[in-house]
Amino acid sequence: MKSEAYLQCIIPSCGKKYDVKTTRTFCECGNLLDVRYKGSFRKELTSIFHDRRNPKGNIFNESGVWRFRELINFTNFDSEDYDNYSKVFVSFDGAEGRTRPYEMTKVAEYVGMPKENVLFQPEGLNPSGSFKDNGISTGLTHAKMLGIREAICASTGNTSASLAMYAANEGVKASIYIPKEDIAPGKLGQAFQFNADIYQVEGNFDEALKVVLEKGREGAYVMNSVNPFRLEGQKTMIYRALEHMDWEAPDWIVFPRGNMGNCSAFGKAIIELYEYGWIKKKPRFVSVDAKGSNTFYTLYNGLFQGEKLRWNNGNVNDELILEYYSYLDKMDIKPKTGATAIQIGRPVNIKKGLRSLEYTNGISVQVDEKEMEDGVAIVGSNGFDCEQASATCVAAIRNLVKEEVIKKDDKVIGILTGRLKDPQMIVKYHTDSSNRFANPPKVLYHRS
Ligand SMILES: *Cc1c(COP(=O)(O)O)cnc(C)c1O
Ligand SMILES: [Zn+2]
Asked: Is 394 within the bounds of a domain?
């Protein structure tokens, strides 16, 4: 199946279109772009997706991203023409996206739901240890289409780890811009290990991203989630979750809020599938902020100047956002949380995120540091591994069940975005017996 793709400004009143063969990530009007496809897709594809789970030697069937290639094919290569698409699709030999939702008995008990109703999808099982691989595979595919030899990104750690890993495998240069502090050692280690060019920015992630977007305007290939081709790959997390549920949408999808790439991609996946008629119900999104980094929670719930920030069919109140950011500057308020992956004060995809929440009747909540740490521990007690940012889902679901916003017989999917790359955090947690799930070691004294 051949598809025709183009780029389009997300703001309906602008709607300017661009060819996919461009490095631009912003419309002339300053807003973000979507990848759009001509025509619709038939639900019969779901059985083709399923059949590919027997990959028959094709790594692009093994890949949990490219297995859904018809729905993300911006390359204009025929999705059945292996000889051609295999020259351009980027994959870590089929290893990315091999995830699906799992039952986690102890986590379910902790959040107060029957185990079959609350499932968690551990994206940390991706080759670089986070969901980012879903998007880097498609983002780098687009870069390759354009003949790009160097990609850049700002990162709280996982984007750079993933980009560095894929770039090493593809023989492309990765230049990464990371905050000097507040990066998990395991993520920093990956950037070194995979031989990226590393730039340490004095300041936080928001400042690093500013540097990168400036370079993007000068023509560099930007691999942050402003890259609409990257977000196409991140839609496949939703496809895998839905496939696991026989394409019956759950009631809720819960995920952490960082730069809002996932919120944007997940919303786009749901909007498209709903428009194609593949799903009859739109799951409600829960976007979770860390309390120490709660820009979106604050704006969405009207806690700044009393106005609730909304998509409003593309007429977003830009002034409200800018006033909030200048208030943060004036008061010298910086985002601060142990969940460094979501320590982001100025989510660049905020408008796409608002669109997703509006379409899914979504909500925004926040959780505190202890709740995230307990979440990491309880997920661990089920034999799974996640970092604090990911554990926001567990904490949020627990709170929403208590508040009876989520009902016990609702179906809920939580996206565990990445594995723990700061093992000191969990060692510290377990050796402090005041922690709820602490499991301190028993010390033996050996006498000879
Ligand atoms: C990047 C990242 C996030 C934030 O995701 P966004 O799409 O930017 O909102 C959350 N958790 C982990 C583990 C991450 O690596
Ligand atoms: Zn525009």
From this structure: yes
The answer to whether position 208 is within a domain reads: no
Is residue 262 within 6 Å of ligand 1 at its C-beta?
yes
What CATH number is associated with residue 373? Answer: 3.40.50.1100
Residues 6+ apart with CB under 8 A from 374: 391, 395, 435, 436, 437
Beta bridge partners of 349: none
- Best of 232, 264, 417, 420 to mutate for ligand 1, by most ligand atoms within 8 A of CB? 417
Both ends of the chain: CA-CA distance in Å?
74
Q: Whose CA is nearest to atom 1 of ligand 1?
A: 341
pLDDT digits (tens, 9 = 90+) for 49-91: 999 999 999 999 999 999 999 999 999 899 999 999 999 999 9
Give the pLDDT score at 88. 95
> How many folded domains does the chain comprise?
1
Phi, then psi, of 70 in degrees rounded to 5: -60, -35
Q: Are 369 and 343 in contact (CB under 8 A)?
A: no
In the predicted model, residues of the chain with pLDDT beneath 70 are 448
In a domain? residue 349: yes
Q: Phi first, then psi: what are they for 286, rounded to 5°?
A: -120, 115
> What does the pLDDT look like over 145-197, one tens digit per residue?
999 999 999 999 999 999 999 999 999 999 999 998 899 999 999 999 999 99
| pTM for the predicted model, two decimal places | 0.98
Question: Among candidates 287, 307, 293, which has minimal Cα distance to 358?
Answer: 287
What is the extent of the structural domain holding 278? 102-127+230-430
Chain-centre distance of CA 15, in angstroms?
Answer: 25
Name the closest-CA residue to atom 15, ligand 1.
Answer: 158
307 alpha carbon to ligand 1 midpoint, in Å?
A: 27
pLDDT at position 124: 98
Per the domain annotation, does 63 fall within a domain?
A: no
